[in-house]
């Protein structure tokens, strides 16, 4: 996104247009008016990725318009990124210009910051990293007060930690998260807290169990687990599973069983299609599932997972693609109706939007 595309004065109009689009998508299903959760107008994005563009002897942060790779937009400051990223950018640029070991064949830079004030910088290279780079990276990490990770083909070197620490508050309780380098995290921390609070409220206090698919690092798992008897959560990424297990233990959440299965594999297990060794010790028949919670990728739920969701009294669905959300609801509407829905503006000044729906059995 270019700085020219950022228009705080027009933000309310853009948000109203998104709300109208979501209402149009959900109108065929008799959805109630959406609860709309806005974003800070600036400094809301906790992560950012830049390519580097050489002009003369200097390399600059650069981004490209969609579909374009030859005409860079050179970046000095990035108003949508966190204040911490904006503070780190010139200091990092000065370091790679002053230290040949840092700047040589550096082609991409990634920042990850948190509302809790932690920061991690990933430097990507078209060369192998050596001891000279590591010594320079140690000096850089001390200067920036951030972890530094170097990536080259098939290799990774970590100076500090390979994760950032985050704290998100839901219903007055602080939850602490480890966010690994390279794994998915919600980019807009303020809106993420609003999403968690909405899901927490929509689920309500329950005396039965929750099935969660696509749990990631436990972003939703931690607060939702406090609302139910037990949780069975699934995630396919090893990195995210390890982070989620740490986050559960660190927060003292002990009513969650986490298994490394895809949504499709868990559907097969629940349907008795085949057993999975990773489910050994977990008695699926002892769960009393009342709600399924899903936060799927942009493609939405596959048809078999949709059919699995149909069995539940309640379906709590967070979507990063309302078009596939609408397609999934179309498959579910004969058995479930929309009780609540919400719009979360994770990505101001773009057409992207996140939505949430609570579906209940008719």
UniProtKB/TrEMBL annotation:
Pfam families recorded: tRNA_U5-meth_tr
EC number: 2.1.1.35
EC primary class: transferase
Gene Ontology molecular function: tRNA (uracil(54)-C5)-methyltransferase activity, S-adenosyl methionine-dependent
Residues the record marks as active site: 320 (nucleophile), 320, 354 (proton acceptor)
GO BP terms, alphabetized: methylation
Domain of life: Bacteria
Residues involved in S-adenosyl-L-methionine binding: 186, 214, 219, 235, 295
Family affiliation: Belongs to the class I-like SAM-binding methyltransferase superfamily. RNA M5U methyltransferase family. TrmA subfamily.
Protein function: Dual-specificity methyltransferase that catalyzes the formation of 5-methyluridine at position 54 (m5U54) in all tRNAs, and that of position 341 (m5U341) in tmRNA (transfer-mRNA).
UniProt name for this protein: tRNA/tmRNA (uracil-C(5))-methyltransferase
Organism of this sequence: Pseudomonas typographi
Gene that specifies this protein: trmA
């Amino acid at each position: 996104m270019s700085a020219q595309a950022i228009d705080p004065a027009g933000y309310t109009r853009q948000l109203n247009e998104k709300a109208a689009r979501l209402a149009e998508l959900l109108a065929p299903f008799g959805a109630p008016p959406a609860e709309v959760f806005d974003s800070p107008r600036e400094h809301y994005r906790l992560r950012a990725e830049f390519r580097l563009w050489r002009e003369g002897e200097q390399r600059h942060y650069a981004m490209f318009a969609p579909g374009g790779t030859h005409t860079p937009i050179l970046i000095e400051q990035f108003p949508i990124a966190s204040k911490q990223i904006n503070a780190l950018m010139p200091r990092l640029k000065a370091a790679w210009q002053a230290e040949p070991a840092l700047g040589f064949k550096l082609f991409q830079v990634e920042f990850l910051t948190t509302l809790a004030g932690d920061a991690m910088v990933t430097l990507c290279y078209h060369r192998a990293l050596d001891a000279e780079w590591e010594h320079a990276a140690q000096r850089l990490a001390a200067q920036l007060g951030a972890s530094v990770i170097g990536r080259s083909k098939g290799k990774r070197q970590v100076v500090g930690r390979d994760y950032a620490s985050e704290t998100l508050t839901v219903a007055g309780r602080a939850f602490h998260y480890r966010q690994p380098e390279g794994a998915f995290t919600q980019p807009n921390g303020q809106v993420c807290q609003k999403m968690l609070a909405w899901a927490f409220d929509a689920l309500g206090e329950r005396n039965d169990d929750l099935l969660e698919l696509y749990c990631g690092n436990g972003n939703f798992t931690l607060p939702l687990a406090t609302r139910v008897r037990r949780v069975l959560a699934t995630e396919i990424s090893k990195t995210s599973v390890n982070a989620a297990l740490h986050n559960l233990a660190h927060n003292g959440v002990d009513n969650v069983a986490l298994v490394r299965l895809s949504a499709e594999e868990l559907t097969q297990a629940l349907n008795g299609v085949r057993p999975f060794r990773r489910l050994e010790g977990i008695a699926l028949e002892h769960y009393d599932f009342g709600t399924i919670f899903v936060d799927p990728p942009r493609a939405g739920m596959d048809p078999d997972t949709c059919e699995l969701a149909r069995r539940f009294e309640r379906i709590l669905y967070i979507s990063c693609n309302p078009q596939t959300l609408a397609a999934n609801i179309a498959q579910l509407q004969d058995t479930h109706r929309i009780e609540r829905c919400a719009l979360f503006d994770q990505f101001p000044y773009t057409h992207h939007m996140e939505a949430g729906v609570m579906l209940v059995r008719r």
